[in-house]
Amino acid sequence: xxxxxxxxxxxxxxxxxxxxxxxxxxxxxxxxxxxxxxxxxxxxxxxxxxxxxxxxxxxxxxxxxxxxxxxxxxxxxxxxxxxxxxxx
Length: 88
Fold this sequence. Notes:
The protein is mainly α. About 55% of the residues lie in helices and about 0% in strands.
């Protein structure tokens, strides 16, 4: 009798929170790139006014966070939260 494939581990709390509202890897990549572009635009705007550095400090951690979510799902053979909603 064949054994079923192992289930992926449960994601850590910060990864699970980062996946909230994301239904696919493509959506996570869109969020990552939007935060990266907004952070770069704020960095350029900071050449004019230093208040724009707040935007860099705000958006840059989200770039890392979305990257960490994508990496965790890819490495742990995980499924995105919306994966099963299309099949049921």
